[in-house]
Request: fold
Amino acid sequence: MERFKVLAGSASEHCCFEATVVDTSKPTMMGGKHYVNSEGKLDYETVCECFDIDDANEIAKALNAMHQ
Reply:
């Protein structure tokens, strides 16, 4: 599994962001358990949000390359 991945939409729920890059090595924890968001998906620390999904993919690709 890649450490950095792109999620569609904005983690902060701002309409201007198309995608969010997250760090899967840093799960969001609540009550000692990995937090599951309102969409039923596991939640991770946000690295950045992007106006364009292609930019988010390039950022995640570069970050993953640095950590391999």
Observations:
- The chain has one domain: 4-66.
- Residues 53-66 form the longest helix (14 residues).
